[in-house]
Automatic annotation (TrEMBL):
InterPro entries: Znf_SWIM. This is SWIM-type domain-containing protein. GO terms for molecular function: zinc ion binding. It comes from the Bacteria.
Length: 247
């Protein structure tokens, strides 16, 4: 029976500046080993070069986010796994130098970076969130101002033009000071509403199509008719209680 080698039982994690993994042991030593390798991040100049390249080439950014090939990384942000020097710097809880767990970690990381170029930038200290924030910020700064200019320019133009009359705020403040906010205008008294008496309760027709809203309910038509008659009586009583306006 063949046991799973370190490469087969490795769980890889890629963080900015770190490769980390957990490797399952074998039958003789079933313990789980933790192995890690620290990687040098991009310096500020290299980081800005990557952002500037993607700022000028949106298609390259799209291909990078889609997991497609990014050959420009070889020049601007080469893989730190080349050369094999990192194997000697790996640290593993098994305690052995240049152990198989470290070799499995680097091999798995190389396959991951080849399949997902964006992970290479994450390892070098430029994860997806920081990458998009840098590119979008550069695009926003390079975008032309909206039609009409900025808010500061609009305010300056309005100040130079000068007011043509009281502003709405000044008009409301003046009306409030004089007590005219809640005073009805002269046209309010010209309104007249004629209330014709409703038909008597006995003259009300059937409930109409409302019964269709209550399918299968026995007596729905009769109940709705009673409600309509009651509402009509209350409306008639309310009408009689109103005093006619004085001439």
């Amino acid at each position: 029976m063949e046991t799973a080698g370190p490469a087969e039982g490795l769980r890889l994690e890629i963080e900015p500046g770190w490769l980390k993994g957990k490797a399952d042991g074998d039958i003789e030593s079933p313990e789980t080993y933790e192995v890690s390798v620290q990687v040098e991040k991009l310096n500020p100049a290299a980081r800005e070069a990557v952002l500037a390249y993607l700022e000028e080439d949106p298609q390259a950014l799209y291909r990078l986010l889609a997991g497609q090939d990014a050959p420009w990384l070889d020049e601007l942000a080469p893989s730190p796994l080349r050369g094999g020097e990192l194997a000697a710097e790996a640290r593993c809880t098994c305690g052995r130098a240049d152990c198989a767990h470290a070799a499995a970690l680097l091999a798995a990381a190389a396959r991951r970076l080849a399949a997902e170029p964006l992970q290479q930038l994450t390892l070098l200290g430029l994860p997806r969130e920081a990458l998009l924030a840098g590119v979008f910020d550069a695009w926003a700064k390079a975008a032309p101002p909206a039609a009409g200019g900025s808010a500061a320019e609009s305010a300056a133009r309005a100040k130079e033009k000068g007011p043509s009359g009281p502003s709405p705020g000044e008009w409301v403040a003046e009306a409030a000071a004089e007590g005219r906010l809640h005073r009805p205008g002269p046209q309010l008294r010209e309104l007249a509403v004629q209330l014709s008496p409703p038909p008597s309760a006995d003259q009300l027709g059937p409930a109409g199509d409302w019964t269709g809203l209550l399918p299968g309910v026995r007596g729905a038509s009769k109940a709705l008719a009673l409600i309509a008659r009651g509402a009509a009586k209350q409306a008639d009583q309310k009408r009689r209680s109103l005093k006619p306006p004085s001439p």
